[in-house]
Write a sequence for this structure.
């Protein structure tokens, strides 16, 4: 049985979701030169646990250590790998833009929409794995603070709202969004106010090791017709 | 690498959650005679996919076909099996009481509380696996219709409320509970009314293949101080 780990690592840049891809070597047995999710085999010698294996592989392939990683699902069947029965433990990882520069040369960030529109074809069943991880993210964005891990640690609420809107693919009402985020009690007011055109904007901060909190009210109740300011 | 599947199969009986356990054979290499979650190895010959393997193993070990099965997590490390590096794909399955009689002699339903209170010790890390699956169920009960799969297909709302209360470990306000469940639109009014002490109770029905729906408002807003009627 082939047992691997694959990770969908996401960031927000230019107001869009981007996924980190890794180019397979020219001499790969299957899918040479193709773009793929960063992944690899569990090593019985090197890895104590599946979690440590995931971090090791992500660091080796992408040179990155995201603050947030979660398992999405394990996909196993007879057809996904030309070499036979294969299982992969799929992960979703989020990273803030300022920490997302990969140290590896054979990686690139690409817009999720470009992959979905087949502008680029991924190896194996990785396009399906990407869809599964994106679905997990957008579902959790409806009822939790998870998308916070795509934001910088010091942020203004309109920036965070924009991240939620990108993840949900939907505009949100400003006041309803604020109510949900602030009542989740993960943002700390820094006391800093930035004067813009209108009233001063508050700078908030979150801790990178903060737990993902659930909202009392789902985000879909905050979805509106037009983008808020 | 040892790759297995384990399932936490739950039902509600006598107003408590019960888990189906399977007794390991006397000649087992590890944990002989011990009680364990029903589980087994993926068979590259017999199983096309992980999903089919899960159903096959549950049917062989427990003789049961629940309407609802979902993956919870894959747990893998060097210490969980005395034979070395081992991975298990953990599943949560729900079954309604009327379909829950196992055809196998080496199985039994036992109260989840009894396992948690160590009245019975499970093999391997199965007590931890049980906790993980229970946490998934109680989290999802806060924002979705998932516990419906523990109910009979024809039901009264107070019965369903009691199921939620058992799963959440908390009493719920009758009116707030009803608002959430009915607005999720998974229950069909059969038109049948049962006359009891007070006003007649409506009999609802759900389809066993209905999707799990998310609520607009989380269930914790419905949590009260005292058990409703």
């Amino acid at each position: 049985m082939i047992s691997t780990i694959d990770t969908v690592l996401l960031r927000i840049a230019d107001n869009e979701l981007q996924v980190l891809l890794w180019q397979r070597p020219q001499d790969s047995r299957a899918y040479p030169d193709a773009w793929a999710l960063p992944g690899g085999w569990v090593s019985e010698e090197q890895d104590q646990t599946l979690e440590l294996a995931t971090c090791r592989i992500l660091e080796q392939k992408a040179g990155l250590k995201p603050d947030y990683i979660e398992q999405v699902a394990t996909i196993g069947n007879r057809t996904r790998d030309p070499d036979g029965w294969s299982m992969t433990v799929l992960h979703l990882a989020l990273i803030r833009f300022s920490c997302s520069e990969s140290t590896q040369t054979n990686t690139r960030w690409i817009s999720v929409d470009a992959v979905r529109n087949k502008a680029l074809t991924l190896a194996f069943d990785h396009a399906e794995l990407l869809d599964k991880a994106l679905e997990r993210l957008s579902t959790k964005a409806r009822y939790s603070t998870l998308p916070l891990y795509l934001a910088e640690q010091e942020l203004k609420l309109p920036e965070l709202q924009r991240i939620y809107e990108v993840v949900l693919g939907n505009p949100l009402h400003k006041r309803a969004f604020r109510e949900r985020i602030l009542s989740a009690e993960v943002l700390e007011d820094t006391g800093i106010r930035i004067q813009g055109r209108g009233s001063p904007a508050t700078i908030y901060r979150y801790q990178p090791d903060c737990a993902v909190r659930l909202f009392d009210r789902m985000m879909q109740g905050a979805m509106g017709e037009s983008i808020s300011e």
Residues 156 and 203 of chain A are 5 Å apart (CA to CA).
